[in-house]
Automatic annotation (TrEMBL):
Name of the featured protein: Aspartate aminotransferase
Catalytic activity: L-aspartate + 2-oxoglutarate = oxaloacetate + L-glutamate
GO cellular component: mitochondrion
Known partners and oligomeric status: Homodimer.
Keyword Translocase: no
Domain Aminotransferase class I/classII large: 52-417
Top EC class of this enzyme: transferase
Organism: Punica granatum
Note: In eukaryotes there are cytoplasmic, mitochondrial and chloroplastic isozymes.
Length: 424
């Protein structure tokens, strides 16, 4: 008993020492992080018991029954690699086969840049990881630079470059009055930015607006970038998923390549192959020559080494199996077109349903925009009414995920939108 009392006394005396802290005080100042605005929508939707509830906030493809889809080309690729999968690490730069096939999609099947080995490219943790790798690369080798980001953009873009400690500037993109591109203001921002600035561009299916420049506008943008010596970093998360044609969706990139730009590209297979959970992507940087590409790739690999060391294997094998086999690639092209066509069809159905209800507003922007998301023009207050009165869930900026629209709910959705916008 005396020994126990002595030990307790020593413990108490240590706690009273200057600078001593209790074990529970280390993280006392940590506050809960704010909820992600998109994931929060899904949480609220799942908690709603209403049988009429509709989720048009989800950023993943759904079929016309509202169910997740696994492409048949993916299932076949999995069957082929089943039992043959070794569990060794991939190199820091990832799967060579996957990267090479991915570069063909972005730069062209017969690209001279691929043949001349002028592209530094590494497998990444989907598009998010590619953006983060590039942001860190930019910070390390152009430490005095900043990044111009469109207004609006995918919210995580801001988080990525902020956490990489790259200063951010904005440039005009969306014009609320027309529900379209604010091209004149965009061009003014490009012209007024300091020479040699970095710009983040959405290659196709701009998220969240669904508003893309026309081919003519892309050519003007490219020309002005050339005049100013700007660097274009393309985030291409929806190649093939926007129009149904991967070549068409890469048009912006091809224009910049033909004009002689040295660009960077983030690619992802989350949407166009439905490999959301596999986190398969690629970061590439076009360089002056092979020697420079080798140096840049080595630095990208070192950055990856410090973050996650090696990228995951399974998803990369799925991608390389599909793109490396002519029959499977043909099947993929067919299936990605089916997904894109369903989205396009739902845009038409939603617009027609609104117009049939006698809405006096213009809903042309629904079909003018492209890709998974429709920037509806709904106000936060109108979105709140949709949720509270009709159990329809979306982000408060009025972004509708067209993947959540089906033939079964499009009429209900149109009627609710009509009701909350009557007085607009």
């Amino acid at each position: 008993m005396a020994m126990r009392t002595a030990i307790s006394s020593r413990i108490l005396s240590r706690a009273a020492l200057p600078g001593a802290r209790s074990m529970s005080s280390w993280w006392r100042s940590v506050e809960p992080a704010p909820k992600d605005p998109i994931l929060g929508v899904t949480e609220a939707f799942l908690a709603d018991p209403s049988p009429d509830k509709v989720n048009v906030g989800v950023g993943a493809y759904r079929d016309d029954n509202g169910k997740p889809v696994v492409l048949e080309c993916v299932r076949e690729a999995e069957r082929r690699i089943a039992g043959n999968l070794k569990m060794e690490y991939l190199p820091m730069g990832g799967s060579v086969n996957m990267v090479q096939e991915t570069l063909k999609l972005a730069y062209g099947e017969n690209s001279e840049f691929i043949k001349d080995k002028r592209i530094a490219a590494v497998q990444s943790l989907s598009g998010t990881g590619a953006c983060r790798l590039f942001a860190d690369f930019q910070k390390r080798f152009r430490p005095d630079s900043q990044i111009y980001i469109p207004v609006p953009t995918w919210a995580n873009h801001h988080n990525i470059w902020r956490d990489a400690q790259v200063p951010q500037r904005s440039y005009h993109y969306y014009l609320p009055e027309t529900r379209g591109l604010d091209f004149a203001a965009l061009m003014d921002d490009v012209k007024n930015a300091p020479d040699g600035s970095f710009f983040l561009l959405h290659a196709c299916a701009h998220n969240p607006t669904g508003v893309d420049p026309t081919e003519v506008q892309w050519r003007e943008i490219s020309y002005q970038f050339k005049v100013k010596g700007h660097f274009a970093f393309f985030d291409m998360a929806y190649q093939g998923f926007a129009s149904g044609d991967p070549e068409r969706d890469a048009k912006s990139i091809r224009i910049f390549l033909n004009d002689g730009h040295f660009i960077g590209i983030s690619q992802s297979y989350a949407k166009n192959m439905g490999l959301y959970g596999q986190r398969v992507g690629c970061l590439s940087v076009l360089c002056e020559d092979e020697k420079q590409a080798v140096a840049v790739k080595s630095q990208l690999q070192q950055l990856a080494r410090r973050m996650y060391s090696n990228p995951p294997l399974h998803g990369a094998l799925i991608v390389s199996t599909i793109l490396g086999d002519p029959d499977l690639k043909k099947l993929w092209l067919k299936e990605v077109k089916v997904m894109a066509d369903r989205i396009i069809g739902m845009r038409t159905a939603l617009r027609e349903s609104l117009e049939k209800r006698g809405s006096t507003l213009s809903w042309r922007h629904i079909t003018d925009q492209i890709g998974m998301f429709c920037y509806s023009g709904l106000t936060p207050e109108q979105v709140d009414r949709l949720t509270n009165e009709y159990h329809i869930y979306m982000t408060r900026n009025g972004r509708i995920s067209m993947a959540g629209v089906t033939t079964g709910n499009v009429g209900y959705l149109a009627n609710a939108i009509h009701e909350v916008t009557k007085s607009a």
